Amino acid sequence: MLLILLILLGPLPASPQTYQNFQRKHMDYPKTSPHLAARLYCNQMMQRRNMTNPICKEFNSFIHEPANVVDAICTNGGTHVGRNLYDSHAAFHLTNCEVIGGRGQRPPCNYRGRTECRRIEVACNSRSLPVHFHKMI
């Protein structure tokens, strides 16, 4: 009976959009192992932050700025652009990680990394906190 119910409900979302989940996936300040090459940094951080199991997350950005600066995008540090999306006024130091081999890769995961300084767009919750990294702008 439980199996039938689970089939009817369909797949559950991979991860809920919460502030804590956003921090786990995207925040790294101060930057862990700042002298590590971007590729090695990505391989290490994606595994540490549990984004390589059961499949390798295809793309992820780590933000190397204080949480209060990133949080401010949802209020006075950003511009509302529709629904719950906000564009940052400032550029942020980022490390972008992309899995080598494309979508659906299984561990062990191997990433290419790139450091950039870009403005970002985030989705914010009703408490004016970021819950989803939408894109770089």
From TrEMBL:
It is found in: Secreted. Gene3D superfamilies: Ribonuclease A-like domain (3.10.130.10). This is Ribonuclease-like. It comes from Gekko japonicus (Schlegel's Japanese gecko). The lineage of its organism: Eukaryota, Metazoa, Chordata, Craniata, Vertebrata. InterPro entries: RNaseA (IPR001427), RNaseA-like_dom_sf (IPR036816), RNaseA_domain (IPR023412). Keywords: Disulfide bond, Secreted, Signal. Belongs to the pancreatic ribonuclease family. The gene is LOC107114979. It comes from the Eukaryota.
